[in-house]
Design brief:
The complex is a heterodimer.
Chain A: H1 3-33, H2 53-93, H3 97-109, H4 114-128, H5 134-157, H6 162-170, H7 175-186, H8 188-204, H9 207-212, H10 221-230, H11 236-256, H12 258-269
Helix pairs in contact in A: 1-11, 2-5, 2-8, 2-11, 5-8, 5-12, 6-7, 8-11, 10-11
Chain B: H1 3-41, H2 47-52, H3 61-68, H4 70-102, H5 108-114, H6 117-120, H7 123-134, H8 140-147, H9 164-189, H10 193-201, H11 206-233, H12 238-243, H13 255-265, H14 269-299
Helix pairs in contact in B: 1-14, 3-14, 4-9, 4-11, 9-11, 11-14, 13-14
The chains are: A mainly alpha, B mainly alpha.
């Protein structure tokens, strides 16, 4: 082996070590979920006698909450994309002084703590009868989804040549038809990225679930985990099994949309 | 009117329709809450309001109440420590890792993407996992540390007022590192390679290369990252509620948890609104001052 090959192998080894340290808690979550019930005192570093008891309990106690979370996150994705996509296109292609104002508004909106939104929505929902409801949580989750989706979609749509739509317009299509027939299909990948992130945000939502629900009827799984933590935890394996199940969207996003994640993180943050 | 003019008119209307839903949503989800909070912070808005419909105006009383509360100064100090501690270490670790992953070696990209997992996990999942790791008697951290002979008695990570804030900051650093790596890595990737080649001729390698080429070119990304870091960190709620709930003995109470507590535990919405308005003011102030300062630095 040449000198530089040795060095590169050492770098890979260091990289693996860094990753192992950073991901140890994730490993521990999976490991603890497979340990026999009881506290983690007896938990070894390896699940030598794996049991799925934790998962059985998690599914029977949190199964309904998982379904609730799927409905909320799915609904948020649909609503967010419907609202964000046309706006992102407008902000990327139309020339107007309003574009700058719109972008500034989106940036400032990032500074508003969720608790402010929850505070106001609670009182409004109380009157509108939207507390403890899935639509109520979907709307609340749009507060993180819409600005993010607009930024992601816009940064992609900026690269679309105006001639693309103009060609369709010459053939007599209206602006809206050209948008639906041409812009949206081309933007498929960025729509998927924005959609996956929006799903993940609302799946992970804890604050709105905590504040905008008061009864047990509508209870996303994040709140289910929180309630497990509320008392002295007796069965870590059930808690960790629920945690593993709740981590699935993040893992799917990481595997399926790996190459879009960095772009998404950057598009949402900087541009 | 000519048909062309009519078409233009219709077009302007379509353009408005493209933006209208998003504009309405932003008004409803950000504009309304901010205004409503400003109003509520000046009202005696409590649980009773929901029954009587009455929220008398009280001027700045909510603000004086929350600011003179003995918990306020502690919450301010905790918020500052939490924010500064989290960001300093996230950024330093993120920069170190970004520089490391800039080197070309097998699996570099794969490892770097897998590193993102802690950032993608729901915060409450991370909280729960760390709770189990940090448990005083049975947690794996204390078991490992005692096993290695590094400590004699298990550390009450989340149960001792003197340690809990450090533990919470530590978990938050862990969550924030991946985001910092990703942004700094992309910032590094944008620095033209020619700069380094030119620098090499002038002897700017190693530390000097970092000092004179990497850092100046990274400064724009770094300042955005730091502002975002403050804005996000200052309002963190999930992690603290999941790990300690603000305890023990209020040792991990921040402005955000206090605001939550007043609104949704004590149902004193006016006081909660006052606290969260203070929170907004601080992050806005920080963002404006910092961005103005760095813009000047970048322009020069």
């Amino acid at each position: 082996m040449s000198d530089s090959a040795v060095r590169r192998a050492i770098y890979t080894a260091i990289g693996v070590l860094i990753l192992a340290m950073m991901l140890f808690p994730v490993y521990w979550m999976v490991n603890a979920s497979l340990q026999p019930s009881g506290n983690t005192l007896t938990a070894g570093f390896l699940p030598l006698n794996p049991t799925f008891e934790g998962y059985r309990r998690a599914l029977s106690e949190q199964g309904r909450n998982l379904v609730t979370s799927v409905l909320i996150a799915g609904g948020t994705v649909v609503l967010c994309l419907l609202i964000s996509a046309p706006c992102a296109y407008a902000l990327s292609q139309f020339r107007s002084r309003w574009v700058g104002i719109g972008l500034l508004a989106i940036l400032v909106s990032q500074m508003i703590p969720g608790i402010v939104i929850a505070n106001a929505l609670y009182t409004a929902y109380e009157r509108l009868g939207l507390l403890n409801s899935i639509p109520g949580l979907i709307v609340a989750n749009c507060s993180s989804g819409i600005p993010f989706a607009i930024l992601i979609l816009r940064s992609f749509m900026l690269s679309l040549p105006p001639s693309l739509v103009e060609a369709a317009r010459v053939d007599g299509a209206g602006l809206f038809r050209a948008f639906v027939a041409i812009v949206l299909p081309i933007s498929r990948n960025s729509l998927i990225t924005a959609g996956l992130f929006t799903f993940l945000f609302s799946w992970s939502d804890f604050l709105f679930a905590l504040t905008l629900t008061t009864k047990g009827r509508v209870r996303p799984v994040t709140l289910g985990i929180y309630q497990y933590l509320g008392t002295q935890v007796q069965n870590w394996n059930a808690v960790m099994a629920t945690a593993v199940l709740s981590a699935i969207p993040a893992i799917v996003l990481l595997v399926v949309a790996q190459k879009y994640i960095a772009a998404g993180a950057i598009g949402g943050a900087v541009k | 009117m000519s048909s062309r003019g009519r078409r233009r008119r219709g077009e302007d209307l379509t353009k408005v329709l493209f933006v209208a839903p998003a504009a309405l949503a932003m008004l409803a989800l950000f504009g309304y809450p901010v205004l409503k909070n400003l109003m509520m912070s000046l009202q005696d808005y409590t649980l009773r309001t929901f029954f009587t419909g009455q929220a008398p105006w009280v001027g700045l009383r909510n603000y004086t109440t929350v600011v003179t509360d003995q918990l306020f100064s502690q919450a301010m100090v905790n918020t500052a420590l939490f924010t500064i501690g989290s960001i300093a270490f996230q950024f330093a670790a993120g920069l170190a890792l970004a520089l490391f992953f800039r080197r070309r070696f097998p699996l570099s990209n794969l490892l770097r993407s897998l590193l993102l997992l802690p950032w993608l996990l729901p915060l409450i999942v991370s909280s729960a996992t760390w709770r189990s790791i940090l448990e005083q008697d049975s947690g794996i951290l204390n078991r490992t540390l005692t096993g290695l002979g590094l400590i004699n008695d298990p550390v009450p990570w989340l149960n001792s007022p003197s340690v809990a804030l450090i533990a919470v900051i530590g978990v938050n650093i862990w969550i924030g590192i991946p985001f910092n790596v990703t942004l700094l890595y992309s910032g590094l990737a944008d620095i033209p390679q020619e700069l380094y080649e030119a620098g090499q001729l002038d002897g700017a390698t190693g530390w000097r290369g970092f000092r004179y080429i990497t850092w100046p070119n990274l400064r724009a990304v770094a300042s955005v990252l730091l502002v975002l870091g403050v804005v996000y960190t200052i309002k963190v709620l999930d992690i603290i509620l999941g790990l300690t709930g603000g305890g023990p003995a209020n040792a991990t109470q921040t402005l955000a948890t206090q605001s939550y507590q007043r609104s949704f535990v004590d149902f004193k919405f006016g006081e909660g609104a006052a606290l969260s308005n203070i929170l907004i003011a601080i992050s806005l102030l920080f963002a404006v001052v910092y961005l103005r300062g760095t813009r000047r630095a970048v322009d020069e």
